[in-house]
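[SOLVED] Predicted holo structure with magnesium ion

Edit: marking solved, answer below. Original request kept for reference. I posted the sequence and ligand SMILES and asked for the 3D complex as structure tokens.
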Amino acid sequence: MLDAPIEIEDPHTPAELGTIRGEIVFHDVSFRYPDRILVESLARPLTNLVQDSEAAESARERSTEALRNLSLRIEPGMLVALVGPSGAGKTTITNLINRLYDPSEGFITIDGVDLRAMSLEQLHAAIGVVSQDPHLFHDTILRNLQYASENATYPEIVQAAQAAQIHSLIESLPDKYDTIVGERGYRLSGGEKQRLSIARVFLKKPSIVILDEATSALDSANEALIQAAIDRVLFHRTSIVIAHRLSTILRADKIVVVDHGEIREEGTHDELLEMNGLYRNLYETQFSLETTDEVAAPVTGE
Ligand SMILES: Nc1ncnc2c1ncn2[C@@H]1O[C@H](COP(=O)(O)OP(=O)(O)O)[C@@H](O)[C@H]1O
Ligand SMILES: [Mg+2]
């Protein structure tokens, strides 16, 4: 029972933070996902516990750390691109910033304050997440946007939708902002959902944005709209992007190359190319293919 995963809890007396500037620092962070066996064992009778704890022990030995001794400094307003092979630990890094889990070892600070000392409410208010598949309620578009900021006025909502390049689409629907979305309503495409998710971030106005870029290429019209919306939402905010687009990677203040739960390389595009290491390999096998596409697209499209 003592080994059970620790629940994410609010501190008894949360630290008083003013306006968050958005400096994020990982201090020698290691992380292991909670063992599934152990969680299940809590639901079973006490007599099974000895046996289960043995099973859990061996499961723990087999499981590897998702992050290992990771130290990283992100200055306020910086755009950091996380790159690396699938399973490297990129999503895990963002999950820890969001406090979906706490580090197994080490700690993470925002503006010098340990995440565990902040109230979850303040932490979540400081971070906006643009996901590829945002949760939408079976309700109107207006209600889905108001969810990000209950007190937002109608003009503020329209302004956010415009900045997120989704206003024109909404206006083209028969019921406009009163259109019901979700399972039985209007089905938004992946690109439309992502732009709605960006509109929510504009309404929420967090100092930190976490963006998981889509891996699959969208149609070029959608792609241009999303790129414009993303450019605006990242502006002047501390941004952590799980990046797949070369254009984003080139714009990053710092590129962090993650592999097997560790930071392997860190620097700008030019610095990393010069290292002739993992980044260069990723660039030559994955990212550079996009350049040819991006250069070719306008020519064929005109
Ligand atoms: N919920 C989870 N439970 C257990 N292991 C997980 C979970 N999520 C990810 N992992 C493991 O953690 C490692 C890092 O995964 P992830 O952060 O998703 O990588 P990336 O985003 O770079 O593809 C992988 O080995 C993955 O299998
Ligand atoms: Mg991932």
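OP edit: The CA atoms of residues 4 and 39 lie 7 Å apart. Thanks to everyone who chimed in.
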